[in-house]
Design goal:
296 residues; alpha/beta; seven-stranded mixed sheet; two-stranded antiparallel sheet; 9 strands
């Protein structure tokens, strides 16, 4: 009960911060960066290890430069997420621009459903929210509920503000089956780490053997829904551009794992081009392969 009370106080505090303009929140972000990086050293060891393993060709000064840029962006991201419950439609549309959505709309206009894949690159939370302002069709967003019920409710409500329907990961297949006669899109952040028991497919990714989530491909192959990847570019602080990249319009014609390999190749190229904007503080490679062979 005490823990729940502190959670409500935390939510009240976050709503108070959300009332502030982004310019003020970014000033807090800069201050938070110095505290988080230089005083607290939050997950610095995890980030550095991930960067060293992902970029073996870079020397330590280059790694540290990326590391600092990542923590600066992480702090921006934290305060951008805090702003989400109260950001206006107009401001979000100004800050998050989509390109080539007609690739998806062409299918939706014909009554064909689609699958949209994204990654934890740039502000994926704003991206999910902004997608709801650009596509009026039914949108199912797959997410992993938080253990803290109070904060889970806070995230749920702000993610669903502009009409997204959030679906727990465990309910994905049931939702696909129930919506088979409804024109819709299903959105995945598909670079997350699968649980160890489900780590059945591994890819070479950022110079490391990596367990990958194959859920989007399995659904695409079962339902023959076209698959698209949202490729994010960070233009400047608080401004993003997203290119809608077709992966396949006919999954039934592809070999198994082709879709998964394509989306991770797009993400890898994106990270190599501009490394600081991926979620480096996540323990992405906590699972290690055991006698795993993968296709190069």
């Amino acid at each position: 009960m005490i823990k729940k009370g502190f959670s409500f106080i935390g939510i009240f505090f976050l709503y108070g911060l959300a009332l502030l303009p982004l310019s003020v929140l970014y000033a807090f972000s800069t201050l938070t960066y110095y505290i988080l990086y230089y005083l607290v050293g939050y997950r610095q060891q995890v980030v550095r290890e991930n960067l060293i393993n992902s970029f073996p060709e870079k020397d330590l000064p280059e790694i540290i430069k990326i590391e600092k840029a990542y923590f600066r962006y992480l702090c921006n991201l934290i305060f951008e997420i805090i702003k989400m419950p109260l950001i206006s439609k107009k401001e979000l549309q100004k800050r998050y621009i989509f390109k080539n959505l007609h690739f998806i709309e062409n299918h939706l206009n014909k009554g064909e459903s689609a699958i949209v894949c994204s990654a934890h690159y740039g502000n994926w939370e704003w991206g999910t929210l902004a997608l709801g302002l650009n596509l009026s069709i039914t949108r199912y967003v797959i997410y992993k509920p938080l253990n803290n019920k109070v904060f889970d409710s806070w995230f749920y409500n702000m993610r669903a503000r502009f009409g997204n329907t959030l679906i727990s990961m465990k309910q994905t297949l049931r939702t696909v089956a129930a919506s088979r006669k409804t024109t819709s899109i299903i959105c995945f952040a598909s670079d997350q780490t699968p649980v160890r028991e489900s780590a059945n497919y591994w890819l070479p990714f950022l110079h490391q053997t990596t367990s990958v989530f194959t859920g989007p491909e399995k659904i695409a192959r079962q339902t023959n829904r076209p698959v698209f990847y949202l490729q994010v570019t960070v233009i400047k602080r608080g401004y993003y551009e997203v290119d809608c990249v077709p992966i396949t319009e006919n999954p039934s014609l592809l070999e198994e794992h082709d879709i998964t390999k394509a989306q991770f190749k797009l993400l890898e190229d994106q990270i190599n081009a501009n490394p600081p904007y991926w979620l480096w503080s996540h323990r992405r490679w906590k699972h290690k392969p055991e006698n795993v062979a993968y296709e190069a």
